[in-house]
Design goal:
about 250 residues; alpha/beta; Rossmann fold; Arc Repressor Mutant, subunit A; 2 domains; five-stranded parallel sheet; 8 helices; about 20% strand; elongated; disordered N terminus
Protein backbone atom coordinates (compact mmCIF):
# COMPACT_ATOMS: atom_id res chain seq x y z
CA UNK A 1 0.00 0.00 0.00
CA UNK A 2 1.25 3.50 -0.81
CA UNK A 3 2.30 5.52 2.20
CA UNK A 4 -0.22 8.20 2.99
CA UNK A 5 0.05 10.75 5.75
CA UNK A 6 -2.93 10.84 8.14
CA UNK A 7 -5.02 13.95 8.34
CA UNK A 8 -5.75 15.60 11.65
CA UNK A 9 -9.47 16.15 11.49
CA UNK A 10 -10.81 19.60 12.02
CA UNK A 11 -13.90 20.19 14.13
CA UNK A 12 -14.79 23.20 12.02
CA UNK A 13 -17.82 22.31 9.89
CA UNK A 14 -17.97 22.81 6.14
CA UNK A 15 -21.32 24.42 5.48
CA UNK A 16 -21.52 23.22 1.89
CA UNK A 17 -22.07 19.55 1.12
CA UNK A 18 -20.49 18.35 -2.11
CA UNK A 19 -21.13 15.08 -3.89
CA UNK A 20 -17.86 13.41 -4.89
CA UNK A 21 -17.24 10.22 -6.86
CA UNK A 22 -14.13 8.30 -5.82
CA UNK A 23 -12.96 5.64 -8.29
CA UNK A 24 -10.17 3.72 -6.52
CA UNK A 25 -9.55 -0.03 -6.36
CA UNK A 26 -7.28 0.01 -3.30
CA UNK A 27 -9.72 -0.32 -0.40
CA UNK A 28 -7.27 0.97 2.22
CA UNK A 29 -6.56 4.17 0.28
CA UNK A 30 -10.23 4.56 -0.65
CA UNK A 31 -11.35 4.23 2.99
CA UNK A 32 -8.74 6.76 4.14
CA UNK A 33 -9.84 9.28 1.51
CA UNK A 34 -13.52 8.74 2.29
CA UNK A 35 -13.06 9.12 6.05
CA UNK A 36 -11.23 12.42 5.65
CA UNK A 37 -13.50 13.92 3.02
CA UNK A 38 -16.62 12.89 4.94
CA UNK A 39 -15.14 14.54 8.02
CA UNK A 40 -15.35 17.74 5.96
CA UNK A 41 -19.06 17.09 5.40
CA UNK A 42 -18.61 15.91 1.82
CA UNK A 43 -20.72 13.12 0.37
CA UNK A 44 -18.46 10.45 -1.19
CA UNK A 45 -19.66 7.71 -3.52
CA UNK A 46 -17.09 4.94 -4.08
CA UNK A 47 -16.50 2.61 -7.02
CA UNK A 48 -13.62 0.12 -7.03
CA UNK A 49 -14.10 -1.04 -10.62
CA UNK A 50 -13.51 0.96 -13.81
CA UNK A 51 -16.74 -0.08 -15.52
CA UNK A 52 -18.86 0.74 -12.47
CA UNK A 53 -17.00 4.00 -11.95
CA UNK A 54 -17.54 5.05 -15.57
CA UNK A 55 -21.26 4.31 -15.33
CA UNK A 56 -21.54 6.42 -12.17
CA UNK A 57 -19.49 9.25 -13.72
CA UNK A 58 -21.69 9.32 -16.82
CA UNK A 59 -25.03 9.09 -15.02
CA UNK A 60 -24.49 10.54 -11.53
CA UNK A 61 -24.67 14.10 -10.27
CA UNK A 62 -21.18 14.85 -8.94
CA UNK A 63 -19.20 18.01 -8.32
CA UNK A 64 -15.86 16.18 -8.55
CA UNK A 65 -14.44 12.82 -9.65
CA UNK A 66 -11.31 11.56 -7.87
CA UNK A 67 -9.94 9.05 -10.32
CA UNK A 68 -7.24 6.40 -9.93
CA UNK A 69 -5.28 5.61 -13.07
CA UNK A 70 -4.83 1.86 -12.66
CA UNK A 71 -8.25 0.19 -12.37
CA UNK A 72 -9.83 -3.17 -13.22
CA UNK A 73 -11.60 -3.46 -16.62
CA UNK A 74 -11.12 0.13 -17.79
CA UNK A 75 -8.38 2.48 -16.64
CA UNK A 76 -8.70 6.02 -15.39
CA UNK A 77 -7.26 7.56 -18.55
CA UNK A 78 -10.03 6.00 -20.66
CA UNK A 79 -12.70 6.97 -18.13
CA UNK A 80 -11.62 10.60 -18.31
CA UNK A 81 -11.38 10.47 -22.10
CA UNK A 82 -14.89 9.02 -22.43
CA UNK A 83 -16.34 11.58 -20.01
CA UNK A 84 -14.93 14.47 -22.04
CA UNK A 85 -15.98 12.92 -25.36
CA UNK A 86 -19.57 12.85 -24.06
CA UNK A 87 -19.34 16.52 -23.00
CA UNK A 88 -19.31 15.72 -19.30
CA UNK A 89 -17.09 18.39 -17.76
CA UNK A 90 -17.26 17.38 -14.11
CA UNK A 91 -13.82 18.29 -12.66
CA UNK A 92 -11.43 15.33 -12.46
CA UNK A 93 -8.59 14.95 -9.96
CA UNK A 94 -6.42 12.10 -11.17
CA UNK A 95 -4.62 10.18 -8.41
CA UNK A 96 -2.12 7.52 -9.40
CA UNK A 97 0.94 5.55 -8.36
CA UNK A 98 2.44 6.23 -11.78
CA UNK A 99 4.56 9.33 -11.38
CA UNK A 100 6.28 9.70 -14.75
CA UNK A 101 5.96 12.96 -16.67
CA UNK A 102 4.36 11.23 -19.64
CA UNK A 103 1.54 9.87 -17.45
CA UNK A 104 0.87 13.30 -16.01
CA UNK A 105 0.94 14.89 -19.46
CA UNK A 106 -1.45 12.28 -20.84
CA UNK A 107 -3.80 12.72 -17.89
CA UNK A 108 -3.99 16.47 -18.42
CA UNK A 109 -4.33 16.08 -22.17
CA UNK A 110 -7.40 13.83 -21.90
CA UNK A 111 -9.10 16.42 -19.70
CA UNK A 112 -8.06 15.92 -16.07
CA UNK A 113 -8.13 19.18 -14.09
CA UNK A 114 -5.38 18.21 -11.64
CA UNK A 115 -3.01 15.32 -10.97
CA UNK A 116 -1.66 13.92 -7.69
CA UNK A 117 0.91 11.12 -7.43
CA UNK A 118 1.00 8.41 -4.75
CA UNK A 119 2.27 8.40 -2.07
CA UNK A 120 0.47 11.63 -1.28
CA UNK A 121 -0.32 13.70 1.76
CA UNK A 122 -4.02 13.60 2.64
CA UNK A 123 -4.00 17.27 3.74
CA UNK A 124 -2.67 18.11 0.26
CA UNK A 125 -5.40 15.99 -1.33
CA UNK A 126 -8.08 17.74 0.74
CA UNK A 127 -6.61 21.15 -0.14
CA UNK A 128 -6.71 20.32 -3.85
CA UNK A 129 -10.26 18.99 -3.57
CA UNK A 130 -11.37 22.20 -1.86
CA UNK A 131 -9.66 24.35 -4.49
CA UNK A 132 -11.34 22.46 -7.34
CA UNK A 133 -14.74 22.62 -5.64
CA UNK A 134 -14.38 26.38 -5.07
CA UNK A 135 -13.69 26.91 -8.76
CA UNK A 136 -16.59 24.65 -9.73
CA UNK A 137 -18.95 26.51 -7.39
CA UNK A 138 -17.95 29.82 -8.98
CA UNK A 139 -18.70 28.33 -12.38
CA UNK A 140 -22.11 27.02 -11.27
CA UNK A 141 -23.16 30.41 -9.88
CA UNK A 142 -26.17 31.87 -11.62
CA UNK A 143 -25.51 34.73 -14.03
CA UNK A 144 -27.95 36.95 -12.15
CA UNK A 145 -25.40 37.19 -9.34
CA UNK A 146 -23.05 39.27 -11.48
CA UNK A 147 -25.13 40.98 -14.11
CA UNK A 148 -23.02 43.75 -15.64
CA UNK A 149 -19.71 42.08 -14.78
CA UNK A 150 -19.41 40.44 -18.20
CA UNK A 151 -16.73 41.33 -20.72
CA UNK A 152 -17.76 41.09 -24.36
CA UNK A 153 -15.44 40.03 -27.14
CA UNK A 154 -17.29 40.09 -30.45
CA UNK A 155 -20.09 37.50 -30.13
CA UNK A 156 -18.61 36.04 -26.94
CA UNK A 157 -19.39 37.18 -23.38
CA UNK A 158 -17.15 36.15 -20.47
CA UNK A 159 -18.08 36.57 -16.81
CA UNK A 160 -15.00 36.10 -14.57
CA UNK A 161 -17.09 36.06 -11.38
CA UNK A 162 -19.45 33.24 -12.36
CA UNK A 163 -16.94 31.74 -14.81
CA UNK A 164 -19.66 31.67 -17.43
CA UNK A 165 -19.03 31.95 -21.16
CA UNK A 166 -21.81 32.80 -23.60
CA UNK A 167 -21.49 32.62 -27.37
CA UNK A 168 -24.35 34.29 -29.25
CA UNK A 169 -26.28 34.01 -25.98
CA UNK A 170 -25.71 30.26 -25.66
CA UNK A 171 -23.87 28.87 -22.64
CA UNK A 172 -20.52 27.26 -23.45
CA UNK A 173 -19.44 24.50 -21.07
CA UNK A 174 -15.75 24.83 -20.24
CA UNK A 175 -13.59 22.90 -17.81
CA UNK A 176 -11.88 24.88 -15.06
CA UNK A 177 -8.56 24.92 -16.91
CA UNK A 178 -10.19 25.82 -20.23
CA UNK A 179 -11.84 28.83 -18.59
CA UNK A 180 -8.60 29.84 -16.87
CA UNK A 181 -6.79 29.64 -20.20
CA UNK A 182 -9.46 31.65 -22.03
CA UNK A 183 -9.60 34.32 -19.33
CA UNK A 184 -5.82 34.66 -19.27
CA UNK A 185 -5.78 35.24 -23.02
CA UNK A 186 -8.78 37.59 -23.00
CA UNK A 187 -7.25 39.66 -20.19
CA UNK A 188 -4.12 40.24 -22.28
CA UNK A 189 -5.25 40.76 -25.89
CA UNK A 190 -2.45 40.90 -28.42
CA UNK A 191 0.19 39.63 -26.03
CA UNK A 192 2.01 36.55 -27.30
CA UNK A 193 2.63 33.69 -24.84
CA UNK A 194 4.90 30.71 -25.30
CA UNK A 195 3.64 27.31 -24.17
CA UNK A 196 6.06 27.41 -21.26
CA UNK A 197 4.71 30.79 -20.13
CA UNK A 198 1.12 29.52 -20.32
CA UNK A 199 2.05 26.47 -18.25
CA UNK A 200 3.58 28.71 -15.61
CA UNK A 201 0.72 31.22 -15.50
CA UNK A 202 -2.33 28.96 -15.96
CA UNK A 203 -1.21 25.56 -14.67
CA UNK A 204 1.32 26.76 -12.10
CA UNK A 205 4.27 24.77 -13.38
CA UNK A 206 6.59 25.04 -16.36
CA UNK A 207 8.55 21.83 -16.63
CA UNK A 208 9.92 20.70 -19.98
CA UNK A 209 7.79 18.08 -21.69
CA UNK A 210 4.43 19.50 -20.57
CA UNK A 211 3.92 21.83 -23.55
CA UNK A 212 1.71 19.32 -25.35
CA UNK A 213 -1.02 19.75 -22.75
CA UNK A 214 -1.23 23.44 -23.74
CA UNK A 215 -1.80 22.42 -27.36
CA UNK A 216 -4.55 19.95 -26.46
CA UNK A 217 -6.36 22.44 -24.19
CA UNK A 218 -6.20 25.15 -26.86
CA UNK A 219 -7.54 22.73 -29.47
CA UNK A 220 -10.47 21.80 -27.22
CA UNK A 221 -11.11 25.45 -26.36
CA UNK A 222 -11.11 26.41 -30.03
CA UNK A 223 -13.56 23.61 -30.82
CA UNK A 224 -16.01 25.21 -28.38
CA UNK A 225 -15.65 28.95 -29.10
CA UNK A 226 -14.51 29.26 -32.71
CA UNK A 227 -16.79 29.16 -35.74
CA UNK A 228 -14.01 27.33 -37.56
CA UNK A 229 -11.29 25.92 -35.26
CA UNK A 230 -8.99 25.62 -38.28
CA UNK A 231 -9.39 29.38 -38.88
CA UNK A 232 -9.63 30.83 -35.36
CA UNK A 233 -10.85 34.36 -34.71
CA UNK A 234 -10.18 34.54 -30.98
CA UNK A 235 -7.10 32.49 -30.06
CA UNK A 236 -4.47 32.92 -32.72
CA UNK A 237 -1.33 30.89 -33.36
CA UNK A 238 1.89 32.89 -33.64
CA UNK A 239 4.01 30.45 -35.60
CA UNK A 240 7.31 29.58 -34.01
CA UNK A 241 6.43 31.41 -30.78
CA UNK A 242 3.07 30.48 -29.21
CA UNK A 243 -0.45 31.92 -29.00
CA UNK A 244 -2.28 35.21 -28.46
CA UNK A 245 -5.82 36.55 -28.09
CA UNK A 246 -6.76 38.55 -31.19
CA UNK A 247 -6.67 42.34 -30.90
CA UNK A 248 -9.20 42.55 -33.72
CA UNK A 249 -12.00 41.33 -31.43
CA UNK A 250 -13.66 44.40 -29.92
CA UNK A 251 -14.05 44.19 -26.13
CA UNK A 252 -16.57 46.10 -24.01
Amino acid sequence: MAAVEPLIQSSRPNLMRNNILLIEDNDDIANLIMVNLRSKHMQVDHASDGDIGLDKALNGDYQLVILDLMLPNIDGMDICRIMRSKNIYTPVLMVTAKASEIDRVLGLEVGADDYLSKPFSVPELVARVNAILRRAEQYRSTPEQSVGACFNFGEMSVNPDTRQVLLKGNNIELTAKEFDLLWHFASNPGRVYTRSQLLSRVWGYGHDGYEHTVNSHINRLRSKIEKSPAKPEYIMTVWGVGYKFSQDIQST
